[in-house]
Amino acid sequence: MADKKIYRRSNGGVELTEEVLQQMAKEAEAGLDPSKLRRRPGRPSMGSGPAGTFPVRLEPELRKAVDDRAAKDHTTASDVVREALREYLKFS
């Protein structure tokens, strides 16, 4: 019996041979059942819709103050900035 070429292993440890890959392709072409697809965790949603980024430049002293506050509060710099903006804008 000839050795099968193994391209690699899946995350689940399945050996991905030519036969396995062909079977997977056949199943995909026939249509995938969405209920069998794994949902991958992502970032939790914030507010009423997807959150956007807002780049802002900070002088080194202000950035250090933000980082120091984040470390003191056991949170992230982004959380500190968001909370500061909410408080400044009286936004809840």
Condensed summary:
The protein is mainly alpha-helical and 92 residues long.
Mind explaining what this structure looks like?
- By secondary structure, the protein is mainly α.
- Among the domains are: 6-31, no CATH class; 60-89.
- The chain is built from three helices and two strands.
- The chain has a two-stranded antiparallel sheet.
- The radius of gyration is 24 Å and the shape is elongated.
- The relative contact order is 0.06.
- The mean pLDDT is 86.
Structural class: mainly alpha
Strand content: 5-15%
Unreliable segments (pLDDT under 50, ≥5 consecutive)? none
The global form is elongated
Q: SSE order in H/E notation?
A: EEHHH
Radius of gyration: 24 Å
Report the biggest beta sheet as strand number plus sense, adding barrel if it closes: 2 strands, antiparallel
> How is the largest sheet built, in terms of strand order?
1-2
Oligomer: single chain
Overall mean confidence score, pLDDT: 86
Helix count?
A: 3
What is the percent of helical residues? Answer: 40-55%
- How many beta-strand runs? 2
End-to-end CA span: 69 Å
